[in-house]
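Re-run with default settings, no changes from the original entry. Doing this only to confirm the output is reproducible before filing.
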Amino acid sequence: MLKEFIKERLVKAFIVGAIIGMAGIGINLFPAGTALEENFGLDLLFTMRGTRVPPEDVVIVSIDKESADRLDLPEDPRKWPRFLHAKLIDVITAAGAAVIVFDVNFSEPRSSQEDNKLADAMRRSGNTVLCEFMQIENVPIDNKTGSTYGEMNIAKVVPPIPSLARAAFARAPFPLPKISNKVSQYWTFMTSAGDKPTLPVVSFQIFVMQYHVDFIRLMDRVNAYHAEKLRQSHKDFVKNRGIEKVIRDIRHIFQGDPHIGAEMVKELESSRIPFDNKTKHAVLHSLITLYKGNSHSQYLNFYGPARTITTLPYYMVLQHGLPPGIPCR
């Protein structure tokens, strides 16, 4: 009797497990299932995990209605005078920010005086990154008879106006894949634009350049040939400030050698190379993770609900600067 009871329980457990497994396969096979998983599954996982402690050295300056009201500006941020952005850059630069990133569209010219003030502020900062606007064009598709039977969507990258594009330290697009009814992932590289690195990748790479020598030293333990390539790339960066070349060189190495990422993580975790602080260790791990693998998108690992990361109104930073206690460069 006991054997039959155990056998019956095992059969039931197997059937339940098989049903759950088949349901999981079905969810992943169909777009609707993937959307369901991202809409509810991710929310559940984030809720179970709870809010994480946000990074102390990241500040979001919000372009919000409160700032528009206090500064007597239009609600549409695109109409805000650019000399205010110039002043904001000077304030944040004075506080020692390592990287300043604008998720603002600067593809239309203003008065030469305004544009020049913003360009001068960006040159003074030496670390301002601008967002390239993404424009979707519908191109008709014709058959051999000349009749249109469909259309194709082409993503076009629209850079900032030339004076601002030249003054910026770097610029990059910021497309967001919308697989479900909300954004849960971000593109790292745009295959439709020649594997162009996106705004998060460019911004992060600029921030971690202070640890780039350590990154090369770590790679040297894994592959001296690749490390020498990056040393040359780093010399070029110091001379010409070409951050995109650094990114492309690293990506080329990781794509050409799929095992190098895992080997570098193993070397990092083995602690055979001493690192003087936990931040450096965490940054190097994140940098390796960014480049390893063939995926062109990654899931957003939210720290918590809106404003979990330190968020300050535009007017407050403009008038009072960054509050004390926020570590910068």
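Residues 9-33 have pLDDT under 50 and may be disordered. Strands lie at 60-62, 100-102, 128-142, 148-158, 170-173, 185-187, 189-190, 196-197, 297-299, 311-313.
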